[in-house]
Amino acid sequence: MSSRRLSYAALMVAAGLTGVYAETIPNFEILTLVVFCSGVLLGARDGALVGAVTELVYSVLNPYGPAHPLVTLGQVAGIALAGAAGGAIAGVGVSRHSFPVRAVTLALTGAAITVVFDLLTNVMAGLVYGQMRAVLIGGIPFSLWHIGTNVALFALIGSPLLLVCARYRSRLSS
């Protein structure tokens, strides 16, 4: 990895950590969008790596205490998916489409990523506590809120960010 790409990756990790540590509303976060944009900017592999590193640091140094290792594993895998998805979206050229097409595509992508993240995290928590059904059912309202806020963030903020990240991605490849 070039020093320029490494600098961008470090910047995205810092932006993601700033967002999660500034969180004040439960399940309203910008980390998923930041990691997704990392994938757009750096490609699927490096975007996933940015997500994994960011989530690992946050999970271990969480202000509420570290998450159980299985829950951490679920969180790291779930957020790494966001970086990989960003690379995939950049690869198919979604940035060349109109705002409405980008917004709908990103809203659906944000919803899918969040569903997988919440499901992975809740399944791991269910395994840890031995209460799979209770954890999954109890997590539904939080997941719905999380999915809704990420859909809004991806559609409204992600669409213009996609253009910026795609522009810088082309500069990194030259």
Annotation keywords:
single chain, 174 residues, mainly alpha, 82% helix, globular
Strands, total number: 0
Radius of gyration: 16 Å
Largest sheet entry = none
SSE order, one letter for each helix or strand: HHHHHHH
**How much of the residues is beta strand, in percent?**
under 5%
The average pLDDT value, as a whole number, equals 93
Outline, from the CA principal axes? Answer: globular
What distance lies between the first and last C-alpha atoms, to the nearest angstrom?
Answer: 14 Å
Residue runs with pLDDT of under 50 for 5 or more positions? none
- Give the helix level as a range of percent: over 70%
Number of helices: 7
- By oligomeric state, this entry counts as single chain
Q: Which structural class do the helices and strands define?
A: mainly alpha
List the helices and strands and how they pair.
Blueprint (H helix, E strand, L loop, with lengths): L2 H19 L9 H12 L1 H17 L8 H23 L7 H31 L2 H7 L1 H34 L1
Helix pairs in contact: 1-2, 1-3, 2-3, 2-4, 2-7, 3-4, 4-5, 5-6, 5-7
Can you describe what's shown?
There is one protein chain. With 174 residues, this protein is an all-alpha fold. The chain is built from seven helices and no strands. The chain has helices at residues 3-21, 31-42, 44-60, 69-91, 99-129, 132-138, 140-173. It starts with a helix and ends with a helix. The mean pLDDT is 93.
Compact summary:
This protein is mostly helical and 174 residues long. The protein has helices spanning 3-21, 31-42, 44-60, 69-91, 99-129, 132-138, 140-173.
